[in-house]
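Issue 218. Parser rejects a valid record. Input:
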Amino acid sequence: MANAPKTAAKQESNNGGSFFAQAAIIICFIVGFCVWKFVMGNPTNFVDNNPENAPNPGNYLGMVYHAGAIVPVLLGLFLMVWVFSVERLIVINKASGTGNVGNFVRKIQSLINGGNIDSAIAECDKQKGSVANVVKAGLLKYKAVSADTNVDTEKATIAIQKEIEETTALEMPMLEKNLNVIATLVSIGTLCGLLGTVTGMIKAFSALATGGAPDSAKLANGISEALINTATGIATSTFAIVLYNIFTAKIDKLTYSIDEAGFSIVQTYAANHK
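Output the parser choked on:
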C-alpha cells in the first residue's frame, strides 16, 4: 500500500508519455506532407508556375518535390527525430535537478558521513529531480529504521537498499521513455531512404527502356529522386543515432549518481549501527 501513490503517478506518467508519442508522430507526418505539398510544391518553384514541369534553374525546393511521395514520409521522420530529442532533453534535464548532479551527490555523501540526515533530506528537496527523489527515499527509510530500535542492522540495511531500488525502478522508465522511438528512427530513416532510392532508379531505368532515344529529363528526374531520398534518409538516421547515444550517456550518468549516493547511504547506516 505504501507504494500505491508512486505506482499511480508512474501510470499517469506512462499514459501522458504514450499520448505525446502518438500525437507527435501523427503531427510530424502531417507537417511533413504539408511542407512537401505546399512549400516545396509551390507553383512559383517551377517553370510556367506548373508543379508538373521541371523546377526553375537552381530551385532546390522544386527539385526535392519531384523526388516523389517518399519525401513527405522522410520529412516526417526527420521532424520526429528533433521533436522526440527536444522532449527527451527537457525530461532528462528536469530529472537532473536544479543543480549539478555530481556536486549534489558529493554534498549528500558529506552530510551523511557527518550524520546530518535531516540536512541531507532538505538538500534533496532543494535539488529536486529523479536523482534527488531516489536519494530522499533512501534517506527517509534510513531515518525510519534508525528510529526503530527493534530492527537489526542487517534487516534495516536490506530495507534501505530495497527502498532505493524500488524508487529507482519507478524513476528510470520516465528517463528512458521514447528513446525506443529515436532508436527505431535510426533504422526506419535508412530503410525509407533506400526505398526512395529504389523507386528513383526504377524511374531512371524505365526512361532508358523506352524505344528510340532515352528520355533525358525522365532519366535525370529518376536519378535525382534516388539521390535526394538517399541523402534525406541518411541524414535522418545520422542525427537519430548521434542524439540517441547522447541521451543514453546522460541517463547512464544519472544512474551512476543514484548508485553512488545509494551505496553511501547503505554503507553509512551499516557502519554506524554495528
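Fixed in the parser; the record now loads. Residues 49 and 166 are 63 Å apart (CA to CA).
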